[in-house]
Amino acid sequence: IEQAKKAGFDIEIVGAGGADLTNRLIAEKNNPIADVVFGLNNIFYENLKKEGVLLKYVPQWASQVDEGLNDPEGYYHGLVKQAILLGYNADLYTPETAPKDWKDLYTNEAFKGKYEAPTRLDRATMRLVVAGILADYRDDNGDLGISEEGWNALKQLYDNGVPVVEGEELYANMASGKVPIGTIVSGERFKREKEYGVKTGYATPENGVPMIVEHIAIVNGTKKRETAERFVEWFGTAEMQGAFAKEFGAMPVIAEAAEQAPAEVKEMFAGLKAQPLDWRFIAENLDAWVEKIELQIMN
């Protein structure tokens, strides 16, 4: 907000979980209140594009973004990469004793009741955990494109984990040892570690981790289109994203900006492999998966 003001923009940020924000934008599409949307991931932008919520606009910096990360149709463009990680309290577990991937949580009795299950499915991060697990069980003849084995695996994940408690912070629970294992996001990791006084480690599964790109787009029907375009042009530049990376520990998708990311962030991403995911398949099915999980699996 401060940097935007210096650049001549008076902005108000309305923050919410990815699913809630997407639903709100769709609900308001005939009389939009927002002008720009940023921070959502591929799945949500695909839904917004399908619903006609986004305005096609290609900023000048788009050509500098790593290949394949922008929307090929020009509706949304990449800002930063985020890795969705299975994290743990590094004072309680070593890389040898910690879970190696999500499957370990529900197949190894040692982790029963020790991890936070992804029960808050209004949050983008937890939806991505579910998507990453179910993607390994894709079966076009199965229920909602997933094999029975996959749904059984997910049920075990929920049955053996601890539900998210409203008002409790995972990092605080990790620090106390109450719930030492759970989902962490790469861009929040170092800040949260300092905030809660906990050192975390994370699993590096053989098939990779869900790696999403947070994008920026202009809302179709904005009454401030020219200003929105100028804001997108300013916010996505290598200079601005480099400064953003320094401040918030992000990993930009423009190489020039990525060079300015903190050393520990660059080191973390150097050792991470992206899980191959079919984002279109996930976007088409995720809402139905969530409904099934909430109605049949978590209950």
What can you see in these coordinates?
Strands 1, 2, 3, 5, 6, 7 and 8 form a 7-stranded antiparallel β-sheet that branches. The chain has 13 helices and 8 strands. The protein has helices at residues 2-6, 18-27, 42-50, 102-107, 124-134, 148-160, 170-176, 186-196, 225-235, 238-248, 255-258, 263-270, 279-297, and strands at residues 36-38, 54-55, 77-89, 138-143, 181-185, 200-202, 211-219, 251-252. The mean pLDDT is 94. The chain is of the alpha+beta class.
Q: What is the multimeric organization of the chains shown?
A: single chain
Describe the largest sheet. Answer: 7 strands, antiparallel
What structural class do the secondary elements suggest? alpha+beta
End-to-end distance, in Å?
42 Å
Mean pLDDT: 94
Sketch the topology as an H/E string, one letter per element. HHEHEEHHEHHEHEEHHEHHH
Percentage of β-strand residues: 5-15%
Which characteristics define this entry?
alpha+beta, globular
TL;DR?
The protein has 299 residues and is an alpha+beta fold. The chain contains 13 helices and eight strands.
Strands, helices and their partners?
Blueprint: H1 2-6, H2 18-27, E1 36-38, H3 42-50, E2 54-55, E3 77-89, H4 102-107, H5 124-134, E4 138-143, H6 148-160, H7 170-176, E5 181-185, H8 186-196, E6 200-202, E7 211-219, H9 225-235, H10 238-248, E8 251-252, H11 255-258, H12 263-270, H13 279-297
Antiparallel strand pairs: 1-7, 2-7, 3-5, 3-6, 3-7, 3-8
Helix pairs in contact: 2-3, 3-13
